[in-house]
Hints:
By secondary structure, the chain is α+β, with helices and mostly antiparallel strands. The chain has seven helices and eight strands, in the order ββααββββαααααββ.
Amino acid sequence: MTFILSFTDRENQSMLITGESGAGKTVNTKRVIQYFAIIAALGDNVKKAVSCLGSLEDQIIEANPAMEAFGNAKTIRNDNSSRFGKFIRIHFGPTGKLASADVDIYLLEKSRVVFQQPGERSYHIYYQILSNHKPELQDMLLVTTNPYDYHFCSQGVTTVEGINDGEELNLTDRAMDTLGFTPEEKYGCYKLVGAIMHFGNMKFKKKQREEQAEADGTE
């Protein structure tokens, strides 16, 4: 993970956080971002308008729960392993106040969506939704609360010691609100995850006298 801290009229400064899986790169990334956001906010005495959209500092900090939900998973060596690359830039103005931030994401481990090794788990968002901490999602997505009802979610383990999927769902949901997701966009993300779970339960059969497959039933 590399941070590019861009200062107006100054040279760019970079911070490289590296290490083996489970060494703490993700946790240290969050701490560094929180530090810069808090320090920058201390110098801001301007009264902020009341809005459901969080301040820039809040948005930068709250980006982590959302990214982790959709991009982190349990591996054999790490219970909260980033399965994608992050390139983060934080931009500061001449006074040291946060001006903007952007994140480039690449190399998402797509294979994990459909298959997990024994002792590993798919992306956290699946198990957050299935936690029943927001029961309206069960009705909206037509899913149960049992991960073993879904092939794509149950080839490895379904729980992680030390991670409360229900509480994490609240953090993910709040993060998307703070980041400015509209209700349609937020629930659209949940619906895509639900659709993937349903796709994993589809069965196919070979068409007679053809080298093609078709859905085996309409359930």
